[in-house]
Amino acid sequence: MNRFIQFLEKRWFLVTLALVALTLFYSGRHELTPSMPIPTSLVLPDDAPREFIEEIPARALLITEKAFIRVAKQVTPAVVNISSVHFVRHPDRFGDKDQGALKGFFKNLFKNPLQPKFRQKSLGSGFIFSKEGFIITNQHVIADADKITVRLSDRREFIGQIVAQDENYDLAVIKIPASDDLPVARLGDSGRTEIGEWAIAIGNPFGLDRTVTVGVISATGRSDLGLTDNEAFFQTDASINVGNSGGPLLNASGEVIGINTAIISTGQGIGFAIPINTAKAIIRKWIAAEQLQSNS
User: Fold this and answer.
1) CA–CA distance, 228 with 169 (Å, rounded to integer)
2) Is residue 256 a contact partner of residue 187, using CB atoms and an 8 Å limit?
3) 188-211 burial, b for 16+ CB within 10 Å, e for fewer?
4) Which of 83, 84, 122, 170 is catalytic?
5) What is the CATH number of domain 190-283?
6) For 60, which of 15, 150, 203, 231 is 20 to 30 Å away at the CA?
7) Residue 249: beta bridge partners?
8) Is 90 known to be catalytic?
9) What gap in Å lies between CA 67 and CA 5, rounded to an integer?
10) Better pLDDT: 226 or 238
């Protein structure tokens, strides 16, 4: 026994090295035999192979791309093209005062009317949010309109009736005949929207029907812009142009979080939208009043 102990003492370095080697061998075998397969989600395990890690950017882009495609397919049918017409008369070329027989003579002489009407057209966007045919848009899109034409994505056209409008908020609701097959956009909760979130705008810029643009929420609570009396806008760099007014601003889930309203003409990538929560309270009152009036 004493000889064995003396042997170990003389060769302690070799014994220690052997024990370390055995420990590493068994621990290494355990690591090379994972209890679960490597996941295929974006959550990476510590021992993910290099080729799998290199696929992650492509996978993330593909997931984002599919989200945009899904939102466009779901919401675009609910986005409408709004054309409003305002009839205006030329001023009387002979003046407003009665000129007696001379004025009557010239009125009878000219075949063209002395006060002909001409039309001023306004193009904008809106979106259906109810099967009852209610549509949200901006007040400036339908301001002073004598006739409002609403065209759906399937080319159906309706004459829109103004339910209510508020210049202070630049909001308006118009109505077309109710139908079970009307596509409807889902309203979200703009109070949960954060700076940096995806923002998807759909509208009819320059009359180009149902154009989809993508950006982010650049800022929230923008005020003192001189656009309306009540301001707390979302700012976005999603491209918004003339004709986008009244169209929806959406999150990546396809929920309406804002109503595209204005741009800064001297800058690029600076657009503003009314948060949908601001519109909800006002619109509910309008619809309730309209339904009460219809039932009376």
Assistant:
1) 6
2) yes
3) bebeebeeeebbbbbbbbeeebbb
4) 170
5) 2.40.10.10
6) 203
7) 201, 258
8) no
9) 72
10) 238
Q: Which residues contact 242 (CB under 8 A, 6 or more apart)?
A: 123, 205, 206
Is 46 annotated as catalytic?
no
Choosing from 83, 125, 140, 218, which is the catalytic residue? 140
Q: Which helix (H) or strand (E) holds 216?
A: strand 211-222
- Report domain extents, the chain: 190-283
Tens digit of pLDDT for each residue in 119-170? 767 789 999 999 999 999 999 999 989 999 999 999 999 999 999 999 999 9
Written as six digits, the tokens of 182 are 């009307």
Helix (H) or strand (E) run with residue 103 in it = helix 101-109
Mean pLDDT of the chain: 79
Indicate the pTM of the whole model. 0.71
CB atoms inside a 10 Å sphere around CB 42:
10
pLDDT digits (tens, 9 = 90+) for 160-219: 999 999 999 999 999 999 999 999 999 999 999 999 999 999 998 877 888 999 999 999
Residue 143, token pair as written in the block: 């301001």
Listing DSSP states for 25-82 in one string gives: HHHHHHHTS-SSPPP-SSS--TT--HHHHHHHHHHHHHHHHHHHHHHHHHHGGGEEEE
**What are the C-alpha distances in Å from 191 to residues 45, 230, 273?**
35, 17, 13
Q: How far is CA 163 from the centre of its chain?
A: 23
- The structure tokens 């306004």 sit at 122
Query: By C-alpha distance, which of 166, 175, 235, 244 is closest to 209?
Result: 244
- Please compute Rg for the chain using Cα positions: 33
